[in-house]
Amino acid sequence: MATEISDIYLESIKKQMLYYKTIAEKAIDQIAAEQLFVSVNDDTNSIAVIVKHMAGNMLSRWTDFLTTDGEKEWRNRDSEFENELITKKELLAFWNKGWDCFFSTINNLQAEDLTTIIYIRNQGQTVVDAINRQLAHYPYHIGQIVFYAKMLKQTPWESLSIPKNKSIDYNADKFSQEKTLKHFTDDELKKLK
Q1: Residues in CB range of 83: below 8 A, 6 or more apart
Q2: What is the C-alpha to C-alpha distance for residues 162 and 165, in angstroms, rounded to an integer?
Q3: pLDDT in tens, 139-173
Q4: What is the pTM of this model?
Q5: Residues 128-140: pLDDT tens digits?
Q6: Which residue, among 158, 136, 123, has the nearest Cα to 29 in the 3D structure?
Q7: Interior angle at CA 48, CA 107 and CA 22, nearest 5
């Protein structure tokens, strides 16, 4: 039973993270490439900087996840907030490198790994805690990306979730269907593609 629950948890994490990754990419696709590098003041990060930080975090946390500290010696976190990437292509390549590292690690985890203690900056935590930590961290930044993209976009925004003033229609559609057991992202990812 515990293995089954662990497998369900890992599958849920994969689906949720793919959903959030897709949300960010759909937001990025709605703005001009040069808008990725816009920062409105010294205290805000451009979308490019947020993407760079997320990818740097992923590479550090998920490389040799079970065997080395999640804050790698080679990581320079402060430099993640300085942007030397100058094209959308470079930015998305780095973004995908981070996500590939994350998904590769998650795909190779086994149920028995979830209670293993790993370290981030010498602070021990279970694999479940480390995953949950990132499940909060990455969507936090993806929310920033989406919000910033909505502010920068010069043309009408294509909703990435339930469109404004469409909740009644959305709920009517959902409640018109048979009850089923499935992950909430199963339908949402289809709509985003």
Answers
A1: 37, 46, 48, 49, 52
A2: 8
A3: 999 999 999 999 999 889 999 888 889 899 888 88
A4: 0.91
A5: 999 999 999 999 9
A6: 158
A7: 40
